[in-house]
Amino acid sequence: MSKHSLSQRARELREQLNEHNYRYYILNDPAISDREYDALWDELVGIEREHPELDEPDSPTHRVSSDLTTAFPTVTHVRPMLSLSNTYSAEEVHEFDRRVRERLGEEPYRYVCELKIDGVAVSLIYQDGVLRTGATRGNGEQGDDITANIRTIRSIPLRARQVEYHHRRISSFEVRGEVYMAKSDFEAMNAERELAGEKIFANPRNSTAGTLKMLDPKIVARRPLATFLYYLEADDVQLESHAENLKLLHDLGFPTNPHRRICTSAEEVVAFCTEWEEKRDTLPYEIDGVVVKVDSLRQQEKLGTISRSPRWAIAVKFEARTAQTLLNGITLQVGRLGTVTPVAELTPVFLAGSTISRATLHNADFIAERDIRVGDTVLIEKGGDVIPKVNEVVMSLRPGDAEPFEFPTTCPCPLHTRLHRPEGEANYYCEHAECPWQIRGRIQHFASRAALDIEGLGEKVVDQLVTLGWLGNYADIYDLHNHRDELAALERWGEKSADNLLAGIEASKERPYGRVLFGLGIRHVGATVAKTLAQEFHTIELLLNASVEELTAVNEIGPRIAESVVRFFSDSGNRDLIERLRTAGLTMHGPEKPKVRDGDSPFSGKTFVLTGTLPSYTREEASALIEERGGKVSASVSKKTSYVLAGADAGSKLAKAETLGVAVIDEETFRGMLEAADGV
Q1: Which residues does residue 159 pair with via DSSP β-bridges, in sequence order?
Q2: How far is CA 490 from CA 303, 471, 493, 496, in A?
Q3: Of the candidates 92, 101, 44, which has an alpha carbon nearest to the alpha carbon of residue 314?
């Protein structure tokens, strides 16, 4: 290539890499695979190395990566958070080992192999054993201060356990790790979001990244975030070994991944990687490779780093689990709330341990944006137990007669109801209450584990009983005892199966009021909102007659939820179903919330901050007692704070309260306030 062509190509590569960094780190919407990104990176590095005169000071090769969001204060990392070089083959592992061996000379060395969690990297700073700062990786030099969000993750200790190393206490230190979301938690959260009419996340990593970028810690606290820590750097002691550090992290109270191995050769490293690439689906969380590190910290320092990554560590990436197949058709499926989802009907292809013949296409916008057409050859992806999805179209293989897909205007059910797309929403809906597909979905939801938890009433059984005409709504479940003998006579049933199902139905009558509300399937009312409604309106009669104004007066209940609740209970058919459930014996009431006497309660209008460990109450219990009596609970101390309730090992909040002159109370005083509020 000519000098001009090389210069132009280098400029194109920089633009592409910057764009992909932005999509990955800021938008959480990567457009290419890790391997494709690495190929672009390596090409640019090669041009700049061979032709230094073409190098530019703003090239992405001169920094670790990514831009910063402007939503949080910026934190400068004490030590750069470097990224790892990626490898994809046994040959590349052996080449890495050769470079390590040559640089260390005659010194013996060993590796620590750990699973590469597909999450979001964070740095945590502890001073005097107390968490002071939590930050994202950012561009490696600077990250976003997300301390308030980090504090909501229960697996991260706010105060570390006391640990000594060589007779010196580890007191001030930095730890790093990955925040992630378990597969089952991710699926449950997506189900909640779908119920609320919100956009669902594509995968656990995207949901984790999006959560950590939220500005409201209260919302973050409700997300099921978890973490594994893998790095320790202490100011108080001279650490020696990465393997030892992992043990010290565990002793300090941090979660560390148990699946790791010390290896003394490249062959052992490759064997560990092969083992976990085959076993990755057995894990409850996503991994995308194995991280290999030289164990000795002294040797790590000797090996050093290059501009982008350390010479003493690599990431052995697993191949993306994708497959290529034909899109034979696009059909529609209807959920319990009438949500219409397009589904790709595929030529069956084996992927990630199972044969895939269908994959989600999300919504009409997804199809239009990617110009997906029947007859296309498409790439599909499956991550763990996440639903298979169509990633992209192989345009070079598109047949000449492929027509753009037009989204149907009527429901595919026998009623052929006209579909409706509300303004501002991505989904189409079938709004006919007797749509048979919705009926199945509503009954399945009612019987699900998070709702009434009726053992034996799964998807296939619901489909069978709806087809037989025995179930037309969820209230019919409690009349199935009238079909006991007919159930037992069905193929593959028998006496025991029929009795087990009926026993599961009977047991569901003991489920608490909040779960019954969730099971009703009110749009925008997830499990958390249902629990809140059950606490605020402790009988079904109160909720049946609640107005939009009364509902929106409740914390966390907005106009959209309130209107949906009122609309649901104003429907005479829904009221009839509730009455049938009550007659069947389901729980339609909960404990009454204590009434607060305006002006009399020492909690009324007061803001409390809790710190330390109380002898008789958990943090959640104390918060509930305060809120039930008209008070508010805040996460931080300010001049507006009324009281700081301090227990054992109270930290910086106590010190700040004393500085600001905020009243500090102990549990004994708190108990007296409770008695005064309750008129004891």
Answers
A1: 130
A2: 70, 15, 5, 12
A3: 92
322-429, what's its fold?
A: OB fold (Dihydrolipoamide Acetyltransferase, E2P) (2.40.50)
pLDDT digits (tens, 9 = 90+) for 49-97: 888 888 876 677 765 444 444 568 888 888 889 888 889 889 999 999 9
- Write the DSSP string, 333-357: EE-TT-EEEEEEEEEEEEETTEEEE
Show which residues are catalytic. Answer: 116
212, two tokens: 């950590």
Say which CATH superfamily domain 74-185+202-317 falls into.
Answer: DNA ligase/mRNA capping enzyme (3.30.470.30)
Distance CA 574, CA 191 (A): 23
| pTM recorded for the entire structure | 0.52
Hey, what are 520's tokens? 């009703």
CATH 3.40.50.10190, applies to 607-677: yes
Q: DSSP secondary structure string, 118-158? A: SSEEEEEEEETTEEEEEEE-TTSSEEEB-HHHHTT-TTS-S
Distance CA 82, CA 304 (A): 12
Structure tokens, 143? 């990250």
Architecture of domain 3-62: Orthogonal Bundle (1.10)
- CA pair distance 123, 251, nearest whole angstrom: 18
